[in-house]
Design goal:
Chain lengths: ~700, ~425
């Protein structure tokens, strides 16, 4: 032990080269045992053989005490290792320890090797002026390789013949192998209950698509093992249940109460119930009910926004009392009954229930002329209509109680036209003093002007037409577009057509004898283009051809009490309002039923008008509002008219006097060219709207 | 403290009047302050200046108006800054000038019926009335009318205008002037007012419908006037006596008892509906506006249409600025519109948010270079405007009870308005 201590064998690495100094090999212990495992010598006292073939004895390793002593005393103990070849102790030098540490830490073992030495870029990426290598590129670098071509050809042939697999084929084969490995039974047996099977399998399996069976009703308190007392049968019910047939029973078992769930016996009807269920499912036909999920908004028609449909009247410009002096006299002003704008659009006439007729300037509200034609006790004037022909400047007004129609010449026009009309009227009046047979009595108001030949152009009454007394008062009055004919509808529902040039009246629907055949007329209108008359009865509209004196068709407006009609200037469309607050638009070429029905008023519609030149309509109602519709009609017969409510005008409600309920709007008329509207109300006011 | 900092803005006060000038060094002002606050601030600045300088300048005006970034301040500075999108840290340039005193009711003339048109020139008011009469009033004459022509027309008088002014502008008894009136009887009549009486010089016949408007050419040298009618035609008439015989083909209509007739010099046809307004812009240019939603510019000498300005609704009144650089139009809608007729592209400059209903009349202030105009409407209000503020009027004159059909502005600084309540009201307005 002490020898070893004195002669520690130096590490081979640190040992100086033996040729550097002159030393003998004797001292160098060398085991020449060869490349054999050393544990072969564990049972022997020697460990091998030296170069001379003598046994090399194991050195004395000392006992545990020596080892402990060495551990305690020797500071080099921690770096002392045993050479397995010779069994000698070797003290590792610092370089060896460093080497071991490097290996343990996973670093480069040799500390002299620098793995991160600076890289010298011998061949730069920059193209240099002179090449690094001077030899020219070989021909083979330009020519495809013949041997590669032959090899690829062989591979292609092998793929074609199926001897060789491509990458995709190999992947597919691998997938199949894996699938087979996952479940052996998957491919061998057909799973008829497999929900994951594709649609093809589904189609093979079934002729009809699968329909989910109806669900069984969930159990009720009757089925409970511990039902409340009221669900249990008493004797009487039990007797009744027993006497009933199966199909009569409300429940097909007797509810029974058990103290605990474990005491519930097996259900005797289990099998039969399952069997019946299967029978039900097998025999009962099933259908699929598709639930329609729809947004209610989608059902509404797509209407354009009102701002895209301008111009339309929406601005209340003027509001004034038609007869302010009358309003001062009586607390309750008498309502306006009719409004009519003159063909030039500068003036309009309004008639009142007080029997007055007045002409107003449209843009200022100035009352240019007013006259008391009838007394209020007679019922006042019910209708006023300006002659739509500019050559015949006159206004027709109908008396509600007296049954008289007043023809008033007006000077609110070109004075040349006025004087011409006055002359013509005076001339024909002289010619036709003798009345031919007429359904109504014409009374020509003679003037001193006609006596001396110079026609006056001032506003004055030209003639009065007295309807037969049996017919009662006038309820409606309408001109033909050409201004020669006008019609009156009277209280009794009879219709008369009057002609200005002949001063005669006739009943186009037949005389008094035939009157029983026709129902009471509510209102009527001429067609502006064709010789056609529209006559509204209580719940239907008759269309008559005036040239052939035949009935063309009957329109059914789905209303009970028609109140007003207005014909579109093309004569192809008709707007009808009724007292049951409906508005019906008829496309006369389309059908006898309304193209569109509008219930946009909450009370009866009093009057409706279609604008003579713009795509506008308006209706006034007892609910105090006036509704403006955009009503565009297309020349293309395949395209339906566009009806859009664009504005509800409530001008009569603003600043209305009295405050006694709703002010009814009774009359309205459009300007002939501009989107301007004038309305009259039951408060005696006139409201003028513009776009 | 931080909030208070952000709520302030720097304002630099400048003025063109050296009498009231203060230092233009920027001052922090609360963002919520309005015109009154700024006015108080300027006044206190002036007071401190006067105290230091011992006050050699005149008295300070009561109130000031402010043009902040060339826009008249109406609401608060915050509104202006937010509307214009100005940076909060920028220095606002506030030009100030003495505030005009509010127009006060000055006098009132009672007429027999709806007043359709009123035109002021000098001290004199020319009033057309729907009781078929034309009247001349004096601004200082109280309720008395200087002259009343009871049956000037056979029907309602719709338009009047001065043709020549009195020589001295004072309307003395020995001076004479001419005016035109037109009405629903389809005629225009030329009158000469002389020695306290008026004589009809000529009846201009030719329109086929009511004459709705008439305007005399600016300056006495041109000698014609224009009229527009409901039938859509604008007609030019010679207003002086010379050459009328040539127009009528040599036939003399002058007789002892009847008034001579006159035929139109030229007819300008182009409007498809009624012509509601005519206005001269210089001697050779005439604007006409009508119910066909258009304003047309006519070359008077050639008699041809040279420009067309579109409007959303019927044009009811027109007035060209005295320097001819801008045109005001009142429409059948709530907004007076300002056009630049010289520009080729978008001629509309501004719309003034004004009336509830129709604008019946618009009129520039006759002061040269003035930025003011007046508008009147069917909502019975007369409004005075500054061009630099389109949002709100300077003043609203609510004295009428009927629709205001016409408004005018005399050189003496009076605003006159005629209304359907049968009165002409005169307001004293400070034009400075």
């Amino acid at each position: 032990m002490s020898e070893i201590k004195k002669q520690p064998i130096e590490s081979p690495l640190t040992a100086p080269d033996e040729y550097d100094y002159d030393s003998s090999d004797d001292e160098d212990i060398r085991n020449t045992v060869g490349n054999v495992p050393m544990h072969w010598y564990t049972k022997y006292p020697h460990i091998g053989y030296d170069t001379e073939g003598k046994k090399l004895m194991k050195p004395d390793t000392g006992d545990q005490l020596d080892d402990f002593m060495a551990k305690m005393d020797d500071p080099e103990y921690w770096r002392t290792v045993i050479d397995p070849k010779t069994g000698q102790r070797i003290v590792l030098c610092d370089e060896d320890v460093q080497l071991v540490k490097n290996i343990v830490r996973g670093r480069v073992p040799d500390p002299n090797v620098d793995p991160y030495e600076d890289h010298t870029d011998w061949f730069t990426s920059d193209t240099m002026a002179t090449p690094v290598t001077a030899h020219p590129p070989s021909k083979s670098s330009f020519v495809p390789s013949k041997w590669e071509r032959l090899r690829v050809g062989r591979m292609v042939h092998a793929i074609k013949m199926g001897w060789m697999l491509t990458g995709e084929q190999r992947a597919e084969a691998r997938r199949q192998r894996e699938a087979a490995a996952r479940g052996d039974n998957a491919n061998r047996f057909y799973d008829i209950w497999d929900r994951q099977a594709g649609d093809e399998d589904e189609a093979i399996r079934r002729k009809l698509p699968y329909i989910r069976p109806p669900k069984k009703a969930p159990p009720t308190h009757y089925e409970s093992y511990n039902p409340p007392e009221e669900y249990l049968f008493d004797d009487e019910e039990l007797e009744k249940w027993r006497n009933q047939e199966d199909y009569e029973r409300r429940v097909d078992f007797v509810p029974t109460k058990y103290a605990a769930l474990r005491r519930v016996p097996a259900y005797p009807g289990y099998t039969s119930e399952l069997y019946e269920r299967c029978q039900d499912l097998h025999l009962a036909a099933r259908v699929v009910r598709h639930r329609v999920s729809m947004d209610p908004e989608d059902l509404l028609p797509k209407l354009p926004a009102p701002r895209d449909l301008r111009p339309f009247p929406h601005l209340r410009v003027l509001q004034y009392l038609a007869w302010p002096e009358e309003a001062q006299d009586s607390q309750q002003p008498l309502p306006i009954t009719a409004c009519s704008v003159d063909p030039s659009g500068q003036w309009f006439a309004a008639s009142g229930a007080g029997g007055r007729l007045a002409v107003f300037e449209l843009t200022t509200g100035y009352r240019a002329w007013s006259a008391q034609l009838e007394s209020a006790s007679e019922g006042g004037l019910v209708s006023a209509a300006w002659n739509p022909c500019a050559d015949r400047p006159c206004i027709a007004a109908g008396g509600a109680g007296s049954g008289r129609v007043y023809l008033v010449a007006t000077d609110r026009c070109d004075r040349l036209l006025a004087s011409r009309f006055a002359e013509a009227w005076a001339a024909t009046s002289r010619e036709q003093q003798q009345q031919q047979q007429s359904a109504a009595t014409w009374t020509i108001v003679s003037t001193e002007a006609s006596a001396n030949g110079a026609a006056t152009t001032k506003s004055r009454t030209l003639a009065t037409v007295q309807l037969p007394t049996a017919q009662g008062g006038v309820t409606q009055l309408a001109w033909h577009r050409q201004g020669d004919y006008f019609l009156t509808v009277s209280d009794s529902g009879s219709l008369l057509v009057h002609r200005l040039t002949t001063r005669s009246s006739q009943s186009p629907l037949g005389g008094a004898g035939k009157k029983a055949a026709t129902a009471a007329v509510c209102c009527a209108q001429f067609d502006p283009v064709k010789p056609v008359l529209y006559v509204a009865e209580k719940a239907r509209i008759q269309v008559y051809d005036l040239a052939k004196l035949t009935k063309l068709k009957t329109l059914k407006p789905n209303a009970r009490a028609l109140s007003c009609l207005s014909v579109h200037p093309t004569g192809c469309h008709l707007l009808a309002g009724s007292l049951d607050s409906r508005l019906a638009w008829f496309d006369l070429d389309l059908a006898c039923t309304p193209y569109k029905q509008l219930r946009i008023h909450s009370d009866g519609v009093r009057q409706c008008v279609v604008h003579p030149s713009l795509p506008l309509s308006a209706s006034v109602s007892d609910d105090g509002s006036c509704l403006v519709l955009h009503s565009r009609v297309y020349a293309d017969l395949l395209e339906n008219p566009l009806l859009v409510p664009v504005k509800r005008l409530r001008g009569h409600q603003v600043g209305s006097v009295g405050g006694s309920g709703i002010v009814r709007v009774t009359a309205c008329d459009f300007h002939p060219r501009l989107p301007w509207l004038v309305t009259g109300g039951s408060d005696g006011r006139i409201v003028f709207y513009s776009s | 403290m931080d909030d208070a900092e952000t709520e302030r803005v720097q304002v630099s006060f400048v003025t063109k009047d050296s009498k009231f000038s203060v230092s233009n060094y920027p001052i922090y002002v609360q963002l919520d302050s309005g015109r009154g606050d700024l006015s108080d601030m300027v006044k206190s600045l002036l007071a401190s200046d006067h105290a230091s300088e011992d006050a050699n300048s005149g008295p300070t005006p009561a109130e000031f108006e402010f043009l902040v970034q060339d826009e008249l301040l109406v609401g608060s500075l915050r509104q202006l800054v937010e509307d214009r999108g100005l940076a909060m840290d920028a220095v606002l340039r506030a030009e100030y000038f003495p505030r005009r005193s509010a127009p006060a009711p000055y006098a009132e003339l009672a007429l027999g019926n709806l007043v359709s048109c009123v035109r002021a020139r000098g001290r004199h008011l020319l009033v057309g009335c729907y009781d078929y009469s034309v009247a001349i009033g004096d601004i200082d004459g109280g309720t008395e009318l200087s002259l009343k022509l009871p049956d000037a027309h056979e029907k309602e008088v719709k338009a009047v205008d001065w043709l020549t002014t009195t020589t001295d502008g004072q309307g003395d008894a020995d001076s004479s002037c001419e005016f035109v009136s037109a009405g629903h009887d389809q005629d225009c009549r030329i009158w000469r007012w002389e020695a306290g009486a008026a004589r009809c010089l000529a009846v201009c016949k030719g329109h086929a419908s009511s004459v709705l408007c008439a305007a005399g050419s600016p300056g006495p040298a041109f000698g014609h006037f224009a009229s527009g009618s409901f039938d859509g035609q604008v007609k030019l008439w010679r207003s002086s006596d010379e050459g009328t015989a040539a127009e009528t083909g040599g036939i003399s209509h002058q007789s002892k008892h009847s008034v001579p007739s006159r035929v139109p010099l030229r007819t300008l046809a182009g409007h498809r509906d009624a012509v509601h307004a005519v206005a001269y812009a210089g001697a050779n240019q005439l604007f006409s506006g009508g119910a066909d939603c258009s304003t047309r510019l006519w070359d008077v000498e050639v008699g041809a249409e040279s420009a067309l300005l579109r409007a959303p609704s019927a044009v009811l009144s027109l007035h060209s600025r005295p320097d001819g650089r801008a045109l005001l139009a009142g429409c059948a809608g709530p907004q007076p519109r300002l056009y630049d007729p010289r520009s080729s592209g978008d001629t509309l400059i501004a719309c003034f948010n004004a009336h509830d209903t129709w604008v019946c009349g618009v009129r520039w202030c006759p002061q040269p270079g003035s930025q003011l105009f007046a508008s009147c409407g069917c909502d019975t209000v007369v409004k005075l405007w500054d061009l630099r503020c389109t949002k709100a009027p300077l003043y609203e004159l609510r004295d009428h009870s009927g629709i205001v059909t016409s408004v005018d502005w005399s050189e003496t600084g009076h605003v006159v308005s005629g209304s359907a309540d049968c009165t002409v009201k005169i307001f004293k307005a400070d034009l400075v």
